[in-house]
Structures are given as C-alpha cells and as structure tokens.
Specification:
By secondary structure, the chain is of the alpha/beta class. 18% of the residues lie in helices and 25% in strands. α6 links the parallel β9 and β10.
Length: 236
C-alpha cells in the first residue's frame, strides 16, 4: 500500500496581512469596504458584506491579468497551491538602495550557504518592506515625479530561476515582484507566461527559515479571476 505524502511541522505562521480599510492600495484599485447586513439585536446573527480588488492585500496574481485567453485564478489545481519555499533575505541591500533588485549573484551566494534551490519551489524575497505596511507613503515610496521606489526581482535572476532552477513561482513582501520603477511588470509577465505562482504583500517573513518551509496558499476561486486575496500559511 502506498502511503500518502505527509508534512511534518512544529510551527504554523500567517504570511498574510489583516485586511482592513486603511491598507496600502495601488493607484486605481477599488477601496476596501465593509458594510453590515445583519445585526445580532435585530437579526439574531452578525454578518458583513465586503468589497475589494482582486489584487488587494496579500494576494496571488493569475496569468490572465496580463495575457488574454490565459488561465484565471480558479484554474490553479489544489496540489500546485501546496509548495515548498526558500527565503532570500535582501533586507540589508534594500535598506541602502530601495531600488535594489535580486541578482543571479545573490542567488548563487544564497545557494553556496544553503544548497541549490530545489525544483518546484517558491522563491520568496524578504526585503523588509513588510514593516512599512501601515504607512502607505513609505510603502510605495514615491518621489516628486510620482515614481515608486521599492525593491524586487531582477530580470536576469528571474530568468535564471525559471530556466535553471525550474521554480514554481515567486513571492515578496512589497506590493509587486517587480521593483517600483519597473512599470512594464516584466517580472510578473515572465512568471505568469508559464502559469506559475506570484505572491505579493507577504508578511512575517522574518519568522521563516531560509529553507524547509511549506506554503499552503488559500485563494478565492473567483471564476475567471485575474487574481485573489490570499490566505498564505507557512508550515515548518
């Protein structure tokens, strides 16, 4: 008899921010709204209606957000949403240069210390930006010309991860896997062209080990959705 796969863990960490009306929002995104529709004194129970964009809060992007006729968030199979993760810490570099992007040299230096990134893993970039979450001005870090400055994945590094390490996807604690100045969203496009996973606005990354965590990614299965707010948990 074949035994089912098992996950051994001693800790479970939320990697998703709490959703509230004052979270940082990309320019043009719909606001987060809550409205009571039932009250205990009058209805016997409490319930709210909520509204937010598909790419609000901690979220996962889907290929059809950039490519016509590509899959939506509802078409990721369950198995693909339980995946091992590695964490590359660039907090020190990002603190000095908010426009810093991950390089191939960074990846190779990480691998020299922790071992080669396993295939079918998610590579999470810990930039320290999670600590700016409730300060929208600092989180987007716009200059006088309106250009945003926050770190992200570099093009060469992303190509290397896809071609040489066959990763399952990428994640980050900023509002985009693309750096703030990358208005072409080229990193999103590279990953989503292959129907891999893109996670943005992660948090609590300082609690994760560099390797050995398993992510469980919960999405709303919105039919044809371009993405979904995500409840991401790490087990290790």
């Amino acid at each position: 008899m074949i035994k089912p796969n098992s996950i051994n863990y001693s800790r479970v960490i939320h990697l998703s921010h709490i959703i509230d009306t004052d979270i940082p929002q990309w320019d043009g995104d719909p606001p987060v709204e809550f409205a009571n529709v039932a009250e205990i004194p009058t209805d016997g129970y409490f319930m709210r209606r909520f509204s937010l964009g598909e790419h609000s809060a901690t979220h996962m992007n889907a290929p059809n957000s950039f490519y016509n006729s590509s899959i939506g968030i509802d078409q990721y199979n369950a198995k693909s949403l339980v995946v091992s993760a590695v964490v590359i810490n660039i907090c020190q570099a990002a603190a000095v240069n908010p426009d810093y992007v991950l390089t191939v040299a960074d990846i190779l230096a990480w691998e020299k210390e922790f071992g080669e990134i396993p295939a079918n893993s998610i590579v999470i970039l810990y930039t320290g930006w999670q600590d700016k979450w409730l300060d929208q001005k600092a989180f987007f870090n716009q200059d006088a010309q309106g250009i945003m400055h926050f770190p992200g994945f570099g093009n060469d590094a992303t190509q290397f991860l896809l071609s040489d390490r066959q990763i399952a996807g990428i994640g980050i604690d900023t509002h985009g896997v693309d750096s703030g100045q990358n208005t072409a969203f080229s990193i999103n496009r590279l990953i989503l062209a292959k129907s891999r996973i893109v996670l943005e606005n992660l948090t609590n990354l300082e609690q994760l080990p560099p390797q050995g965590a398993t992510l469980v990614i919960g999405v709303l299965r919105l039919r044809g959705g371009s993405g979904s707010p995500a409840a991401v948990m790490a087990l290790f």
